């Protein structure tokens, strides 16, 4: 019998293609399916050079891929979980989350080893309010300047000399073969990544429960638990990637999860922290979010919406 072919919808950026080929290889190794890719340009990609930080978290990297699944042109879509909004439309579900890679942010510079090495008033590139806020909370003297585009074009802008340093996700750099550009890692608990950073997810139609079941073998149990906790936190905070929320969950040896999260004002002057350990990822995320809300997170996140 010939094997059935699964069509994987993907964005057409270098990073998205790497991630989708990674998922395709796992599917071919662990299921009876063969695979083909359907690369697409999403609205998020078209706006990448302009206004993304305002639009992030609204699923602008997903819509075209989801439409391809509804139209029967694709069976699944592959995403950076970081780009998947916490509240998914009812028609879709995440059927697998692969083992998380390095979740840290990377400090990338051609002249300096770390944040502490930067001279007074140095220009650092990022368009993420979360990264901006953490930079300024640690180093209020720095000048944070916008930096947009895909990973390759952001590195090019650093090399052009517009910035003393830039901040990118370590996972994206490593996947594209740029690990040697990482001068140092900004790691938890001192520095928190975005919700779901470093994790790749597979989305399918909610009514395709057979496929969802078959693809669940791709999932990494501990990663999936951690991502569920972080996403539950985001949902309760009504966060998107355009607001300054940092979160990082870790699975412990007794199968519990530890979740640490923070909410920042865009200028980094206000920082709320919360952390908790628990077994149920959804209630853990909610409890940590409620702790942050009781400390005034709503008011601080409202500052992000205006920024
Ligand atoms: N915001 C875009 C985005 N979405 C996922 C990654 C990197 C890979 C990942 O975090 O899984 C990046 C690039 C970056 O933030 O530097």
From TrEMBL:
The modification S-(dipyrrolylmethanemethyl)cysteine is found at residue 241. It holds the Pfam family Porphobil_deamC. GO terms for molecular function: hydroxymethylbilane synthase activity. It is an enzyme of class 2 (transferase). CDD domains: PBP2_EcHMBS_like. Its cofactor is dipyrromethane. Residues 6-212 form the Porphobilinogen deaminase N-terminal domain. Keywords: Porphyrin biosynthesis, Transferase. Signal peptide: none annotated. Residues 225-293 form the Porphobilinogen deaminase C-terminal domain. Its EC number is 2.5.1.61. Binds 1 dipyrromethane group covalently. It catalyses: 4 porphobilinogen + H2O = hydroxymethylbilane + 4 NH4(+). GO terms for biological process: protoporphyrinogen IX biosynthetic process. Pathway: Porphyrin-containing compound metabolism; protoporphyrin-IX biosynthesis; coproporphyrinogen-III from 5-aminolevulinate: step 2/4. The porphobilinogen subunits are added to the dipyrromethane group. Belongs to the HMBS family. HAMAP family: Porphobil_deam (MF_00260). Tetrapolymerization of the monopyrrole PBG into the hydroxymethylbilane pre-uroporphyrinogen in several discrete steps. This is Porphobilinogen deaminase. The gene is hemC.
